Each structure stands twice: as structure tokens, then as C-alpha cells.
């Protein structure tokens, strides 16, 4: 089972590397396909659009496909998308290739989270999912800087070739180490769509869009904040972003055990602490050391929220968790777009480079309010069950029953 989780983490590492390395190579890509840097920035949007579209669509198409086979098919599509990116002769085809590479992103994470949760006993399900997510956070520390450096020295196409190789390695590891997990007798697109209609699933996705919008409102403008306000040089920002990744990794490491122990309290605390950290950064950004400490904490709190949101959606979707788990990553990308847009509006309004911190804090508080709303709806009721294993003895995990108030 550790090898199976490692295989899933390698998939997440490849996804994280290809998603963020493009941002660091925009000048090289712009020169290579003869467009301006702002125009090349649309490639980031193309990938995000692929994630938003692909998560529900590919999960729905594969609703009856056994999870291991679906993981292999999605990983194959991921490899094809990155090879197409490396070979694209012009901007139009590169745009289409980045959209193609983004299509399996959400479905891979969603299916992978369900598979990971079923590899272990129910009380360790969140820890298993968080181990898969470690691949994404480590990508921010190692994969993205390495991919950026490779692309700068050997040409931007080499970065996509490297990601394609990672994808092939992940494909082999999945084939060797992930056990077969049959689908239930009620599996199918209609079954998954009915689960998506659950009010708690809708609130959970809204919590992800709004709450994580606060995280991305700041992350999107972190580099100009550091250079224009903190006074950090352009050459040092890559190291600072790696420090951000260290915080994300630490948050992921503690998220699993905390979520297994108390899911909703972990979500509440993460949202509240994220809001507090963003307000703190509004003031701390003017001094280097306090700014770096706060950045690490923001990264940790952003990742701390990821696992409980994922597990909550899987729980509330009951025995059809795959599409809900995949749609969570569509929600993340909508949060990325929305948070960046609102943060940009604040800067354009003349509120200063630090204003996205207050916008982000407000979004985190709103996300906390949505999370509390979902919690209040659960009071006095038997909580949903989450399928955590294909083995009969671990068929379902049930949260403790909350007794109604006398």
C-alpha cells in the first residue's frame, strides 16, 4: 500500500509541475511561438479551462470503468497532452495542447483520492489522501523550479518533455502497484450526478471556490508584492515561492491526521487561520523576515484546508464520491481565476499592492461562513457515510452520530 500511495503521489507531482512551470517559462514560450508575454499567459488559462471542463466530463464518461483502469487511461491522456505541448509548432496548437493536458487533471485527483482512501482502514482515509496530495506540494518545491530551470537552459519544450517522462513513470507505477478496485453495482453517470445534487456537496464546492479564492487572491500577486513592497529582488522570488511550497507541504502533512480525527473542526480552523494570516501579511509584507514567516504560514493553512474539503465532498456524495472528488479541483481552478480577478480589481482601483491580502481575508471569512452553514445543516442528524475501501470489512466509514439537543 505505501507503494500504491507513492504511485499516486508521482501522478500528483507531474500534475503540479506541468500546471505551474508554464508560469515561469512564459517569456521563453512567447519568444518560441512568436507572441507577446501577456498573450502567452493565455496558456495558463487554457490549462485551467481544461481542468474545469475535464473533471466532471471525464469522470462522468468513466463512471462505470474500474478505478485502476480509469487512472491508467487518464494518465495516458496526461502524457499525450504534454507531448503535444512539447511538439506544438505554433501558439494555436500549443493552446489546444495545454487544454488537452489540463483535461485529466481534476479526474486524476478525484479518482486518485477515492482509490487512496480505499487502500487503508477507515480511520486513516484522510491520511492516505493527504499523502497523495504531498506530490502536488513537493512539485512546488522541486518540480516547478527544476522544470523552470530546465526550460530556461535547454528550451521551453524540454520542460514539457520532462513532465511527459514523469507521466510515463507514473503510468508504470500505477500499473504495478495500485490494486484492482471494482465499481459498485450502482455505478454510472446518473448515480454520480444524483450525488452531485446533494446540498452538502453543493455547499462544499462553494466553500472551496470562495475560501480558496482568498488563497489565490494573494498567491497570484505574491511576486509583485514582494518586489514592490518588501523589496526582495527578482532573482530571489523563486526561492521565496519554494518557501511557500515548504509551508504547503507542512500543511498537507498535518492535514491528514487532523482530518481523520475531526474533519469539520479542521476545516473551520484552517479557514479562520488563513483569514488571520492574510490580514497579518497585509502589515508584515513591509519587512522581509516577518513577510517570509507569514508566507510560509499562509502556504500551510491553504494546504491544511485541502484535505478536509476533499474528504467532506466524498462523505456527502456517499457511495458515489468520484465526481464530487474530481469536481473539487474544478472548484480550485475557479477559485484561482476568481481570486486573481478580485485581487486585480483591488490593485486597479488604486488600493495598493497589499490590497489583495484584505480581499483574500474577506473571501476566507466568507468560505468559513459557508463551511459553518454546512455544519449547522448536519446538527442533530446522522452524518453521511463515505466509501473508503472495496474490501467488505472496510466497506463504509461512518462519522460518529451527533445526538440532537434535548
Automatic annotation (TrEMBL):
Top-level taxon of origin: Bacteria
Keywords per UniProt: Cell membrane, Membrane, Transmembrane, Transmembrane helix
Pfam families attached to this UniProt entry: MFS_1
SUPFAM superfamilies: MFS general substrate transporter (SSF103473)
Subcellular location(s) of the protein: Cell membrane
CDD domains in alphabetical order: MFS_NepI_like
InterPro entries in the cross-refs: MFS (IPR011701), MFS_dom (IPR020846), MFS_Efflux_Transporters (IPR050189), MFS_trans_sf (IPR036259)
Annotated spans, Disordered: 383-406
Domain Major facilitator superfamily (MFS) profile, chain residue ranges per copy: 2-379
Membrane topology type: Multi-pass membrane protein
Residue ranges of the TM segments: 42-63, 70-97, 103-121, 133-154, 160-180, 201-223, 235-255, 267-285, 291-313, 334-353, 359-377
Keyword Magnesium: no
UniProt-recorded name of the protein: MFS transporter
UniProt organism field: Streptomyces kunmingensis
Phylogenetic classification of the source organism: Bacteria, Bacillati, Actinomycetota, Actinomycetes, Kitasatosporales
